[in-house]
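Training component of the fellowship. As part of building independent skills, the fellow (R.M.) carried out the full modelling exercise for a liganded target. The chosen ligand was 6-O-phosphono-beta-D-fructofuranose. The inputs are recorded below so that the supervisory panel can assess the work.
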Amino acid sequence: MKRISLTQYLVEEQRLNNNIPAELRLLIEVVARACKTISHAVGKGALGEVLGSAETENIQGEVQKKLDILSNEILLEANEWGGHLAAMASEEMESIHLIPNRYPKGEYMLLFDPLDGSSNIDINVTIGTIFSVLKAPEGMGTPTEQDFLQPGSKQVAAGYAIYGPQTMLILTTGQGVNCFTLDREMGSWVLTQRHMQIPAETQEYAINASNARHWYPPVSRYINELLAGTEGPRGKNFNTRWIAAMVTDVHRILNRGGIFMYPADAREPDKAGKLRLMYEANPMAMLVEQAGGAATNGKQRILDIQPEKLHQRVAVFLGSKSEVERVTSYHESQ
Ligand code: F6P
Ligand code: MN
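Fellow's submitted model of the complex:
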């Protein structure tokens, strides 16, 4: 097999296909390099003294793990000096992070969830880094939070790195979804899957069923129909998979189909679900759509939502198109 590295893939996309501007190529390479460093830290575990709680809380009121903070720092440091970014934003930081004055500034803005699936860190279960890239608005001065509040359809790139038995980078720049596997000995990302496509048909779904008593009727109806199996209206059996790391559930769905749901529910009626729009749902929605799937909040396409706040939450239904359309239609008929 002829090995194509991430660098070669990006250079070819830039040079031959004119799909990626040079600065965006640099940005993606820097993010990929940071993910390599995070993967290394995750892999060390207790040997690197990186496990456990940092005993601080993030803006969402969640207790931060040492690895959450470390991953955030790795991404910030790697991306500060390259000259490709105007600003960054992260799940782990209340406000946006400006590029220090001593470095040149570029035209892109990077958002990330440094380590998704934090509850899996200390039990050696797959976790990942999710990222989203936006362009700075024309004529932007000093970046503000407002400059980040662009709908997901404006993303110029999105992806995630997944730290499991293999470390992988899943990337889209709006021309399909490609998968790179980290060659740990060589330290390089190798293209291992081109044009990932979510299978249209599925018999798998992912939802945290412990919240069932709080679900709103459209979600209960949809899940009850799945649970009824061959005897119900769907006429087939469905299987549950829930890893409690969105990145890992989405990775399974990109590979073999399925639907992932984190709905809003009656527990906290003022909150639109658990997941964050700008650095969790938007990048995943772009990847899923680029792989032939769909992503909605039950009412509208996630990528069409106009964000109002950096850390805004959103209900998420994503994956195989026909299933996402079905559960979305149940919301419409409410
Ligand atoms: O980032 C939030 C997150 O950890 C997701 O990765 C995951 O899908 C979800 O929360 C798990 O939620 P719960 O703890 O309700 O199962
Ligand atoms: Mn997360």
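The panel noted the following from the submitted structure. The chain is about 30% helix and 25% strand. Residues 207 and 282 are 19 Å apart (CA to CA).
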